[in-house]
Amino acid sequence: MQQTTRNISGTDVDHCRLKSVNFETHENHISHETQGLSKTHLVVRRGKPFKLTVTFRSRLYNPHTESLVLEVWLGGLSERIPVQFPDEWSNPQSWSAKIYPWRKHVQSVVIYVCSPVLSSVALYHLLVHIESTRGRRSYAAGSFVLLCNPWLKEDPVFMPLDVQLQEYVKSDYGLVYMGTHLNVSKRPWSFGQYEPGVLEACLKLLQVSPQHLSDKHKDYVQRADPVYLSRVVCAMVNCNDDLGILEGKWQGSYKDGVKPTEWSSSADILHHWASSNCSPVRYGQCWVFASVLCTVMRVLGIPSRVVTCFSAAHDADRSLKIEEYFSSKGEKLGLSKDSIWNFHVWAECWMRRPDLGAGFDGWQVVDPTPQEKSAGIYCCGPCPVIAVQKLCLSAPYDTSFIYASVDADVIQLIVHDGLVMRRTVDTERVGQLIYTKSIGSDTPEDLTQAYKRKKTSYCLRKSATWEGRAGGTSSSLKVSLHIDRMPSVGENINMYVMVTNQSNSLRVLMQHLNVQLKEYDSNPQQSFWKARRKVHIQPYGVLKIYYTISPSEYESVLAGDGIVNVAVVTKDVRTKERILDTKEFNISSPQITVEIEGGDSIQMWKQHTAQVSFTNTFTKALNGAVLTVEGSGLLRGKQEARMDLLQLGEKIEKQVSIMATSPGTKLLMATISHSDSLGVVSRSFHKVSVMTVEHEAQKLQHV
């Protein structure tokens, strides 16, 4: 990228004049690991020299009579950088510029410019001054973007291993884990940092933040700090306090926007936001918020990853306890402001924490989903993961809230006629599993032990149950609910209840089983299946009581993203003692098959054929079946195949022609729905790697 300079001051005719400044973008982008981030700007990383070639117009630059001075501008801030010879000392805490190697009698010189390691992340403007005793000529040379440098040991975001840098900074592909801890599902996500316009949208986000709009000077200075940057970005990913990117919605109709489950690319969301004059994009939920934040942070040079916590608590009153209420027949009641999400997704960002000390360096939780306010704004973090594990709950930011998300106690209460019939405390349920994508693999990495220490004997004793009105006596009746293999759509849901009588007397029991549909982030809806049985159990006896829900009993209410809540209440008819156990699980969806002719690596600007198909494995024919295929950066709009009646075992298919216009990772998304369903009954994603002609040639050379 060669910038033709614009003379902005100076009139001396004998003065050496500047012709152009070549930003050497190709070479600099390779050296600074910024290839593909922008076609319009030089993008470099702080603390590492970048190369400029300066060419003069009328006569050669004479270092004995003239001085060459660069000047960088950031808003109203500027710094002069005298151009030095290689052997001259320069202060590493300041900007420096050196001619290297120096040769006399040349019309152009090569200058290496280096910013301080703690420079602010921003778009800078560069001026070139030629000064002498006769005067000064000044030229506007152009602009460049400066990012954090996780390759540099002195940078607070330094990450030591190349495989980590490849996964957490350079990779534009990730996985989001969803579902329940009993049946984990995953969906790919395209972070899209190499899509045209994404870098510019990330910089725009910083420029329209409340911090920048209220005090530009202060904001520019503080942008050198990744802790500050992460809080600004976290608040700007949601739109609750500002001109942020995403509007959240968790229930009701999504017709005036995009349903959160339909997003698969951060680039699409950032393009929508930037092109709509910073109007919020509708709609997002936790994994969408976290994935967009991960994209922005990777663009800015801060290593980031998406993390899922299964059975995540939302502690509304910050008591570190979650209360759940059940009827005497096992129906879960929405009487508490607290809740347990089947899964909740946040991001982790890698940085040092000089404000806390070296012991708190490393991964930090940054959660942009607008749940509770932090210092008056809807953001959460950065919270050191190690602070959560070590129970340093006062460590900034929001450590107690994150701790409750992964390790709060759950108090379950059975109520009848306004009275608490039984109260139990479960210290193990929250944060049962914490996953992120493994480095270089689509398998999950288990982070649970990074957040949670093993429970002490005291904690384990707390999980004992006691009766609300009887006061503290341990029960001789043990009841546990089990799901007999996780079902797929079209299969029976098989469950059993294990009852153990640890007393020396015959017991007559009344057992109520209640099944409710729920969203991952909310309390259950109305019950769709109930059962009631009278059971006799002998002294010291053990019983296994089976229950089965057939597909015809759940297919009309359970869509592809639904989760099932099952609760069993077992009552001793004589003593009135009640025992509760619960389980929540998701039903696996039938698969949609996607095959790309020639394989999953395709070349830019070349058409390829994808075959998408679905076979009806439900227990009945599907009326009005619709197979939909879409893919950002691969297809324009949605393409559909329709069948009035899709018989059991019959296939519906759609052939589409795809073509990529930019490199990186793309996703094809296919969904199946039918007229009798409440929504999508199955959704599948297919990863497509797009290579440039140069990448293809390099690949062939290595074969």
Describe this structure as you would to a colleague.
The structure is a single chain. The chain is an alpha+beta fold. Helix content is 16%, strand content 41%. The protein is built from 14 helices and 41 strands. Strands 1, 2, 3, 4, 5, 6, 7, 8, 9, 10 and 11 form an eleven-stranded mixed sheet that branches. Strands 21-20-19-16-24-25 form a six-stranded antiparallel sheet, sandwiched between helices. Strands 18-17-22-23-26 form a five-stranded mixed sheet, with no helix packed on it. Strand 32 and strand 33 form a beta hairpin. Helix 6 (226-237) packs antiparallel against helix 8 and helix 7 packs across helix 8.
Anisotropy-based shape: elongated
- Rg (C-alpha, Å): 30 Å
- Structural category: alpha+beta
User: What is the terminal-to-terminal distance?
Assistant: 33 Å
Average predicted confidence as pLDDT:
91
Task: Please provide the count of β strands.
Answer: 41
Helix-residue proportion: 10-25%
Low-confidence stretches: 456-473
Major pleated sheet: 11 strands, mixed
Number of helices: 14
**Strand-residue proportion:** 35-45%
